[in-house]
Amino acid sequence: MSAADRPRGRAVVGVAGELLVTAGLLTLLFVVWQLHWTDFTSGRAQAAAVDELQQQWAVAAPATPGPSAPPEQAPAPAAAAAPALDVTPPQGDAFAIVYVPRFGSDYAVPVVEGTATDDLKEGIGHYAGTAMPGQVGNLALAGHRVTYGKPFHLIADLQPGDAVIVATATQWFTYRVQTHEVVRPTRVSVIAPVPDQPGVEPTQAWLTMTACHPMNSARERYVVHALLESVQDRGAGPPASLAPVAGG
Amino acid sequence: MYGWWWRVLPGPWWVRLLLSLLVVAAVVALCFTVVFPAVADRLAINDGTVDGR
Q1: Torsion of CA B12, B16, B19, B25, to 10 degrees
Q2: Chains A, B: CB contacts under 8 A, how many?
Q3: Which pTM was predicted?
Q4: CB A186 to CB B32 under 8 A?
Q5: What are the tens digits of pLDDT across the range B1-53?
Q6: Is A36 left (phi over 0), alpha (psi -120 to 50) or beta?
C-alpha cells in the first residue's frame, strides 16, 4: 500500500460509515412513520368516515319516524335510500360502524367492504362473501392491531359476554363475544358460515374478528367469535348494550 | 459524503444550513408519501386477515 492509497482508503470507509448512519436514520424514520404517522392519518380519516356515515343515515332515515307507520307499508323510496342489508356494497365503501364498549366509550370505526391492504387502511374490513350484519352465517371482519388507526388494538382484552355492536343505515346489531382462538394465517375455516366447521349449514348469526398476533407480527392471527343477541331499529335509538363496561 | 455536500453548497454557513434543512424536509416528505407506503405494503408486518395462501 502506497502513501497515496491510505487517505483514499480512509475516505471510502468514511463514506461507507456515513451511508450506514443514513440508512439507520431512515429505518428509524420508517418505524416512526409506520407505527405513529399511519395511525394518526388513518385514525383521522376513519373518524371522518364515521361522521359522514352518521350524517348520511340521519338524512336517509330521521331518528324519530312516525310510530304509526307499519313496516309492511314502508314506501319504496325509503327502501332505496336505505339499502337492504343483503346488497353487498362496492369494494372499499364504508357501510357500517362498529362500536365496542370494551375498547372505550368513544370507540367507533367504519366497516368497509373488502380486506385488501388498501381497504384495511380505511377501517375494519368485511371479508367479501361472508354474511352481512344480522344475517345468518358469519359476519367476518379483519382489522389492524397496530398501525393505520389500529381498530383491533385491544382485541385480546375482549372477554366472553362483551358487546360488539354493528350499526347500519337502518339497524343496530348487538353481538356477544363467545370465544377466542389463536390460529395460523391460513386457517380460513375461522370465517366459515359456522366458525371452524366449514361446510356446515349455519342456523345462527355469527360475527368473527381477525387481527394479527402477536402484536407487531404477522405470524399468527387472533380470532374472536361472537353471536348475535339482539336487533334494534335505528329509530328506537342506541341499544342498551352500548353502555360503558366496568374497567373498559 | 456530508463533508463533500457542505463544501459544494454556496454561500455563508446559515445559507448552507437552510438549504440542507430544505433537502432533509424534501427527503422526509418523499419517504412519507411514496417510499414508506410502498415498502410497508410489501412487508405486511401487520396483516390481520386469514386467507388460503
Answers
A1: -140
A2: 73
A3: 0.82
A4: no
A5: 888 888 898 889 999 999 999 999 999 999 999 999 999 888 877 778 888 54
A6: alpha
For the segment(s) A32-62+86-242, the CATH number from 2.30.40.10, 3.30.40.230, 2.40.260.10, 1.10.3110.10 is 2.40.260.10
Q: Compute the average pLDDT of residues A194-209.
A: 94
Are residues B50 and A216, on separate chains, in Cβ contact within 8 Å? no
Report how far residue A119's alpha carbon sits from residue A128's, in angstroms, rounded to the nearest whole number: 11
The sign of the CA dihedral A132, A135, A137, A138 is positive
Closest CA of chain A from B47, distance in Å:
6
The structural domains of chain A, with segments of one domain joined by +, span 32-62+86-242
Pick the residue of B43, B49, B53 with the most A CBs within 10 A to test the interface with A by mutation.
B49
Domain boundaries, chain B: 2-6+13-43
3-state helix, strand, coil in chain B (%, to 5): 70, 0, 30
